[in-house]
Amino acid sequence: MADEYDYDLFTIGAGSGGVRASRVSAAHGAKVAIAEEHRIGGTCVIRGCVPKKMLVYGAQFAEDLEDAQKFGWTVGETKFDWKVLRDNVFEDVDRINGAYTNTLETHDVKIFHEKARLTGPHEITLDSGKVVTAKHILIATGATPHVPECPGHELGFTSNEAFHLDELPKRILIAGGGYIANEFAGIFNEFGTHVTIINRSDKILRGYDESLRDRLLQISMMKGIEFKFHAEFRGIEKTDEGCLRVSMTNHDDIEVDAVMFATGRVPHTKDLGLEDVGIEMGEKGEIKVDRFSKTNIDHIYAVGDCTDRVQLTPVAIREGQAFADTVFGNDPTSVSYDHIPSAVFSHPPMAGVGMTEGEAKNQLGSVKVYLSDFKAMKNVVAGRNERSLYKMICDGDSGRIVGLHMIGPEAPEIMQAAAIAVKAGLTKKDFDATVALHPTMAEELVLMR
Questions:
Q1: Does the domain spanning 7-145+266-327 belong to CATH 3.50.50.60?
Q2: Could you give the residue numbers annotated as active site?
Q3: Which among 108, 142, 136, 119 is positioned nearest to 309, based on CA atoms?
Q4: Which of 25, 206, 221, 433 could make an SS bond with 30 (beta carbons 3.0 to 4.6 A apart)?
């Protein structure tokens, strides 16, 4: 490829999207380098969905140990040790970090473990002062947690720091109504922490079907999680006893031992020199790109959360793959953002794909909705008063399934297969014609009437 540059591709950011793009580009024959100022693997692997899912597994044992007694098991005195779980999670994060690093090295991708900035049209300057050039540049720097501006905000922490706590707080206030807030609320609650969620609006999990949101709110309150809506920070201050006093709008002050901000994530694009080379940015600091992930500058591309298209790891990976195939594989490829499944690893978990009921009615007009509201067999025996809800939304004229939504045990695992059917455009009749796999929760998908 081009000999006048040091590299054919220089990637800034070694998260899921950047690693996939770099590896595949190298496999296509490109000379590739990548810079990462933190650890190889990015948010998902190091401080996001992977370690969080491990905490979710750890938290679920709190209920499983209790339920086991109804299944004939004699459970003795139990004790949870946060540091054991935390350290074991760190150990596995180290393993995955090593695997990502090995993948890049195996494909002869040069790794720079330092911050990189754009200092010219094809020029990258590293923190060490080293200057390199590249024919193509890819920005894959992800996103970073948003921290609300209020007096005392420095006394709180975000999901980045949640995995590093020395001990579990007895009382925690979590700010936010999205998936991060609700997932960590469930985790801390199962570990015995008293959890209070505050949210600026009166809705949680915007974008998910309203029936499921309401069901999770109901179950979460039954589990002891408190919610304070229409609440915004006035300030946080440390008391003489070492606690945190939080003042907020529309509610009385409360004292807690920790405050966690889960108020969204913003593109991590500051101090990269993007504006200096003329890259067009959006109001939130996101990098504007076309359907092939190309910026307004022909040789500079961006993938993943820094573009603020869909902030999901599998989407970043798809975008990275498409970029590599387009630029170095002679196969112009764009990513479809239709029918992307997503999940909330709350207690119990939620999952959805396609349109919500409200979206379908607004877009299609004629809609048929099928529901299955049931108690999982395990919960029946365990005596746990917790009902699952599955919801199928169909085009009223064709019967095509345009949305599937569910809350209940293992909902994300079931949704992955069900999402294929929605993506393929299958109909309610196709589901009706499928024999149920009994006894399972998933069989409810083919038994709705």
A1: yes
A2: 438
A3: 142
A4: 25
